[in-house]
Specification:
CATH topology: Rossmann fold
Pfam families: ABC_tran
Helix content: 25-40%
Radius of gyration: 17 Å
Bound molecules: adenosine-5'-triphosphate
GO molecular function, one term: ATP hydrolysis activity
Strand content: 25-35%
CATH architecture: 3-Layer(aba) Sandwich
Keywords: ATP-binding, Nucleotide-binding, Translocase, Transport
Oligomer: single chain
Family: Belongs to the ABC transporter superfamily. Macrolide exporter (TC 3.A.1.122) family.
GO cellular component, one term: membrane protein complex
Length: 220
């Protein structure tokens, strides 16, 4: 489902060159739940952003669901990203001025859907994360765990095959973090392929497989 071949990422600034990813080869099968761990600065977010087509590699090949990514022009990859990938971030990234349900509908605005279809799909996604009773609330009226559940609903509303989560429990206490992992696990059991960056061994243990990075190199 996700294949990386000899992927390298170099960040260049005027004074320094950083090899953030060094010859990464990765094969994540359909239906796998994989975690990525490693010390701060080892390249975890860079790897997730490259898998998610948010950033282009300096070298190497990326294939998603058998489709080789040939170009990184936004016009070409935005539809692929929108259709195939759902993103969850540590700091939720909700829009404070929009209600919960309007936040969840956002990814669908880039597709040809009617307002009614958008509402139905968003309601379905919110039901899956147990937040049907908070649809009209605004983000500031929610707990951290509830915000992350809204972010998960937004990530799954377009029914993506792949979910990418960058430290989804990093801002939550362990009870709320557990709740989030339970939801991710049930999405995975229902077919989603998930790649999750985490600092938490207990969370990584709940996934099928661990990828460990050190200084941009895969060591496990
Ligand atoms: N836009 C950028 N420009 C220059 N260097 C960058 C950029 N983004 C990341 N880096 C560098 O690339 C390396 C990998 O960064 P990355 O954010 O992927 O690490 P990480 O493992 O996710 O770290 P953390 O656990 O602290 O979030 C770091 O040395 C970082 O300083």
């Amino acid at each position: 489902m996700i294949k990386l071949q000899n992927v390298e990422k170099i960040y260049r600034t005027s004074s320094i060159e950083t090899l953030a990813l060094n010859n990464i080869n990765l094969n994540v099968k359909k239906g796998e739940f994989v975690s990525i761990m490693g010390p701060s600065g080892c390249g975890k977010s860079t790897l997730l952003n490259i898998i998610g087509l948010l950033d282009a590699p300096s070298k190497g090949i990326i294939e998603l669901d058998g489709q080789k990514v040939e170009t990184y022009h936004d016009k070409a990859i935005a539809p692929l990203r929108n259709k195939m990938l759902g993103f969850i971030f540590q700091s939720f990234h909700l829009i404070n001025d929009l209600s919960v349900i309007d936040n969840v509908e956002i990814p669908l605005l880039y597709r040809s859907t009617t307002a009614r279809q958008r509402r139905e799909l968003a309601e379905e996604a919110l039901e899956k994360v147990g937040l049907s009773n908070r649809m009209k609330h605004f983000p500031k009226q929610l707990s951290g765990g509830q915000k992350q559940r809204v972010a998960i609903a937004r990530a799954i509303v377009g029914k993506p095959e792949i979910i990418l989560a960058d430290e989804p429990t990093g801002n939550l206490d362990s009870a709320m973090g557990n709740e989030i992992i339970n939801i991710l696990q049930s999405l995975n059991e229902n077919g989603a392929t998930i790649v999750m960056v985490t600092h938490d061994d207990a969370m990584a243990k709940r996934t099928h497989r661990l990828i460990r990075l050190f200084d941009g190199t895969q060591v496990l």
